Amino acid sequence: MSHCQQCGACCAQFRVDFSIYELDEHGGSVPSGLAVPVNGNTCRMRGTDHVPIRCAALTGRLGEQVGCGIYEWRPNPCREFTEGSDACNRARARHGLAPIARTKGWSLRSTLAGRCDRGERGPGLRHIPSGAVGATGPRKTQCSPYNQG
Ligand code: SF4
Ligand code: SF4
Predict the structure, then answer these.
(1) Vertex 131 angle, CA 128 and 135, to 5°
(2) CB distance 21 to 128 below 8 Å
(3) How many A from CA of 49 to the centre of ligand 2?
(4) Predicted structure pTM score
């Protein structure tokens, strides 16, 4: 059982930066209107670009019941974030939530996604792995303490 659907702390804790090539306007899946430019190659989820951080795609009440409004189209940092990781528990602590154990097989917001029963990818969508052309760099720079707001 994932904690993510009753959490959402990481979506309100970290800047979420990713390659512009993940945007739908460049052939990716993330709705362009939900991102703001960082530089020529990188953009950021809207709402994670200022403090207090709260991703514009996050729905619901943090710590109670949450969801990702673009689950099928979310960017790679969200797909790669691990429930129960150190970063997860730091985010939870900052929002007054108890630490949890690492949950093998779950990745962040993949479980936020649990509320969406449609699976990881929708028809016609493609997942651009980190390291692909235009990717912003090592995964840890995308959603990590270095990007913490
Ligand atoms: S990955 Fe961790 S911080 Fe993010 S929603 Fe899940 S339990 Fe909360
Ligand atoms: S999982 Fe969804 S709500 Fe959370 S940061 Fe990513 S896009 Fe935003």
Answers:
(1) 70
(2) yes
(3) 13
(4) 0.75
Domain count of the fold of the chain: 2
- Whether 84 and 116 map to the same domain: the answer is no
Residue with tokens 């912003």: 136
Domain hosting residue 57, numbered range = 3-94
CB of 109 closer than 6 angstroms to any ligand 2 atom: yes
- Closest atom of ligand 2 to 56 CA is 8
> Residues of the chain with pLDDT > 90: what percent?
66
Number of C-alpha atoms within 13 angstroms, CB side, residue 123?
Answer: 0
Based on the fold, state whether residues 18 and 84 are members of the same structural domain: yes
pLDDT of residue 1: 72
Between the CA of 19 and the centroid of ligand 2 the distance, in Å, is 15
Q: Is residue 17 part of a domain?
A: yes
Ligand 1 center to residue 133 CA distance, Å? 28
- Provide DSSP, 25-82: GGTSSB-GGGEEESSSSEEEETTSSSSS---TTEEEETTTEEEETTGGG--HHHHH--
